[in-house]
Design brief:
Length: 74
């Protein structure tokens, strides 16, 4: 559902394995699961992600996902 929402809203998505070395240079990272919605990560182990704050794309996707859930659960 998150991938569909992203594509529908023209948010670039790339689904692939991530190299550990890429974590240090990522602007944003989030995980998603049915029970977590979209969970932005700001640190992995000792590695700060981006500027250490929740990113704009993660916030946008989370809000779009919440809107989707609200619509489906009417």
């Amino acid at each position: 559902i998150v991938l569909e929402i992203a594509k529908k809203n023209k948010i670039k998505i790339e689904e692939r394995d991530v190299l550990v070395s890429e974590i240090k240079t990522a602007d944003e990272i989030f995980i998603t699961a049915t029970n977590k919605f979209i969970c932005p990560l700001v640190r992995i182990d000792k590695n700060k992600i981006g500027d250490g704050k929740v990113g704009l794309i993660s916030v946008k996707l989370l809000n779009l996902y919440k809107d989707y859930i609200a619509e489906v659960c009417k």
